[in-house]
């Protein structure tokens, strides 16, 4: 790469690599996450005179939610990560096509989240959901034959991590993830995104939720 290129041109070249079919899909999917990590690392050096590893903390807490209304409408999915001190790492939002029921929507969102954690090179993750059936289905997949294929994908993805565990959250302790997911349909926000830290419009609630 030409060292004289502007930052914008360098970023464009990296993003263009996502269209190169000869590059493995996993490598192409990792490009945006790598650029985020580089940006975060650069800011840490400039503003705090510190330098972080490109990998996240070895273990993170990830609160998740799927906002499902009915089998005709799109649903919204979200996740937000925190470290052991409750500090927010990243959060993301995604719109999904209609699902026949709530648990199908939850499983589809979970698959997206596990793939996102892989792309961020998270090694150990504790996933918190306020949907009890989701956690029960993961623990006892044979009791949920209707969802066999989705549960098989979840199992295959979890085996790629050194550690993945699931916790049942209350609605109060999962409020931020719920609100981000609800914004998809409530505000017609169908464009997916990934961001560092938490959304500014939920800043106060994030501070309160960290106490849980």
TrEMBL record:
Domain named RNase H type-1: residues: 64-183
Molecular function terms from GO: nucleic acid binding; RNA-DNA hybrid ribonuclease activity
Signal peptide coordinates: 1-22
Keywords from the named record: Signal
Name listed for the protein in its UniProt record: RNase H type-1 domain-containing protein
Organism name: Brassica oleracea var. oleracea
